[in-house]
Write a structure and sequence with these properties.
The N and C termini lie far apart (about 85 Å). It contains 8 helices and no strands. Helix 2 packs antiparallel against helix 4, helix 4 crosses helix 5 and helix 6 crosses helix 8. By secondary structure, the chain is mainly alpha-helical. The chain has a single domain, classed as Butyryl-CoA Dehydrogenase, subunit A, domain 3 (Up-down Bundle).
Length: about 190
């Protein structure tokens, strides 16, 4: 097989996978622009790798693996920068459906889930993201390069670890002293 892509072949792969990859990355990153950037980078990497990935028959799995790893890496990097500030900057405009309090609570929960995902080992976070993005066990096995029979057990362990970390984070948040407004003296 040639070491360079035939344009129509690459376009077919792009059309087949790009939108789904963006949806997965958007779930992780919470930003359309960042998700599209991560996915564009994944396709650029695929293009540079060449059509040999097709010969292996796992181009979709290869793309999901590259895009989810890049999304998790970006999430971890943004956590170090201060995920809370980033979420406030990227909060969507009020669509009139949710009041500000409900939107704030929703955004806080999203931030907590992202923070918990960033604390998991990359493979576990990646498995959870792929499963909750609608991939089948077979697709997850191909993307993660593991045996299909192992997916259920590995997902169960990843979910249990995520839940434990999330609950610990919730307990910590409830036990942390909150800033109270100062009372005015008379």
């Amino acid at each position: 097989m040639a070491s360079t892509w035939i344009q129509a072949e690459f376009e077919t792969v792009f059309r087949e996978h790009f939108e789904r990859l963006v949806r997965i990355a958007r779930r992780v990153l919470g930003s359309d622009a960042e998700a599209e950037e991560v996915c564009s980078d994944a396709f650029l990497k695929l293009y540079r790798t060449g059509p040999g990935v097709l010969a292996e028959g796992a181009v979709g799995a290869w793309l999901y693996r590259v895009a989810t790893r890049a999304s998790i890496d970006r999430l971890r990097k943004s956590k170090r920068r201060g995920l809370q500030e980033e979420l406030r900057e990227e909060a969507p405009a009020d669509d009139g459906v949710q009041d500000p309090l409900n939107r704030l609570v929703r955004d806080e929960r999203i931030a907590q889930v992202r923070s918990t995902l960033a604390r998991l080992k990359p493979q576990k976070a990646q498995m959870l993201l792929l499963r909750h993005s609608g991939l089948s066990y077979q697709e997850i096995a191909a993307a993660m390069e593991i045996k299909p029979a192992s997916v259920g057990t590995m997902l169960a362990r990843a979910e249990a670890e995520f839940l434990a970390l999330y609950q610990r984070q919730q307990r910590f948040a409830k036990s942390s002293p909150r800033l109270q407004p100062a009372k005015e003296g008379r």
